[in-house]
Design a protein that fits this description.
Blueprint lengths: L2 H30 L4 E20 L2 E16 L2 E5 L14 H9 L5 E6 L7 E2 L6 H22 L1 H9 L1
Antiparallel strand pairs: 1-2, 1-4, 2-3, 4-5
């Protein structure tokens, strides 16, 4: 096995482990929100944000996310936040996944805000674990399995690309 081949396999494993660790972090933070206190707030901004553009097979490929900002008070101290839930900063090429959030949290609407009683500046609009965090964890697992598949079928892969 060549050192270049090993380098690529290590990259695949590292990406997988980093994505899994990030998913575990988000899952733990999401779980913590179930114990947070609640207050009311007001949505200041609610829009679909284009986060990146890249060339794809069929031309231009774009990623989107919901950009929602809200204000709330805890013990007469005012805070603003942009976090709807843990994992909401993940951009996807599917704008429809975020349009429902934008509709739910429209500008100037009153919302329930869940905040960390130990750090009131930490808040979310939705408590608990969301499916996008599970998808992230599964993506990491895919990278790990892909790395093992490359190791197991090294000779078949090399012969496939040699022809």
């Amino acid at each position: 096995m060549s050192s270049e081949y090993i380098f690529y396999i290590l990259i695949v494993f590292c990406v997988g482990f980093i994505v899994i660790l990030f998913g575990i972090y988000l899952a733990a933070k999401s779980s913590d929100t179930k114990k947070w206190h609640e207050t009311t707030g007001v949505v200041l901004k609610s829009e679909l944000e284009k986060t990146s553009t890249a060339a794809g097979y069929d031309g231009e490929s774009q990623s989107f996310k919901a950009s929602i900002e809200y204000r709330y008070k805890v013990d007469n101290q005012e805070y603003t936040s942009k976090r709807v839930f843990y994992g909401d900063n993940i951009s996807l090429p599917l704008p429809f996944k975020f349009k429902s959030l934008i509709k739910l949290y429209s500008k100037d609407s009153e919302v329930i805000v869940y905040y960390n009683p130990l750090k009131p500046k930490e808040s979310v609009l939705q408590k608990g674990l969301k499916f996008i965090v599970i998808e992230l964890f599964l993506l990491g697992c895919f990278f790990i399995l892909f790395g093992f598949a490359i190791l197991k079928y090294e000779t078949a892969i090399k012969s496939f690309f040699a022809n």
